[in-house]
Write a sequence for this structure.
């Protein structure tokens, strides 16, 4: 069994050669062969071009989620790197622990640099791109807005990849994984927003009610286990 990337949401998929397919545990997509992920990215780019040219029913929503979906998929290989096991080294001494904790808490503070833009995108930029009720949206602004969300997503992956840069002392593994998990939580929020949007809007036809909720729900970050790791290290 090998791990490949889901072409729909970027999550790892365990592909079973014996069965001849894999199932994404996150979004439920069935990956029939290893080429599916790459082919789906190509199909998505074609879908974006079609929506921009034809302007089908509820095209603003379809365009937003198709562009975002394409961006998330293109970041799939990076996300896979982020989930690689940490390279571990010998236990850190007390002074080294304090230096690492200072570094990791600094990284945690930078997470706000990713969540703050998301709030602005959904409160200001997306409503502007969608346009007033009864008026067509702005094609360029919709594409830019979707790409901005995708940029935040990619930035969070790079944030998480910094844990792969250097070896992690084995007694700090738990702390590193809990910190990295904070970014994973936000990534999953964005993926869920994209997946639900695609599900609700991709097949929407004239006469069908257009869902009005296009908001991103950011789950509250769970700090208990992170704080617990700090207590284990004796730094609280």
């Amino acid at each position: 069994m090998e791990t490949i990337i889901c072409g729909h949401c970027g999550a790892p998929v365990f592909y079973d050669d014996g069965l001849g397919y894999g199932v994404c545990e996150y979004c439920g997509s069935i990956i029939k062969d290893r080429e599916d992920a790459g082919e789906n990215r190509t199909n998505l780019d074609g879908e974006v071009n079609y929506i921009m040219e034809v302007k089908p029913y509820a095209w603003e929503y379809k365009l937003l989620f198709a562009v975002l979906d394409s961006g998330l998929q293109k970041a799939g290989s990076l996300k896979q790197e982020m989930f690689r096991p940490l390279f571990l080294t010998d236990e850190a001494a007390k002074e080294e622990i304090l230096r690492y904790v200072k570094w990791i808490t600094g990284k945690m503070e930078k997470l706000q640099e990713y969540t703050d833009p998301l709030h602005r995108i959904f409160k200001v930029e997306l409503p502007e791109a969608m346009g007033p009720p009864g008026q067509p949206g702005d094609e360029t602004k919709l594409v830019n807005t979707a790409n901005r969300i995708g940029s935040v997503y990619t930035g969070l992956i790079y944030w998480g990849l910094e844990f792969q840069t250097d070896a992690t002392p084995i007694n700090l593994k738990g702390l590193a994984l809990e910190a990295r998990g904070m970014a994973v939580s936000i990534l999953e929020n964005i993926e869920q927003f994209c997946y639900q949007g695609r599900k609700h809007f991709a097949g929407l036809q004239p006469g069908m009610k257009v869902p009005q909720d296009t908001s991103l729900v950011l789950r509250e970050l769970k700090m208990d286990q992170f704080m617990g790791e700090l207590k284990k290290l004796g730094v609280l």
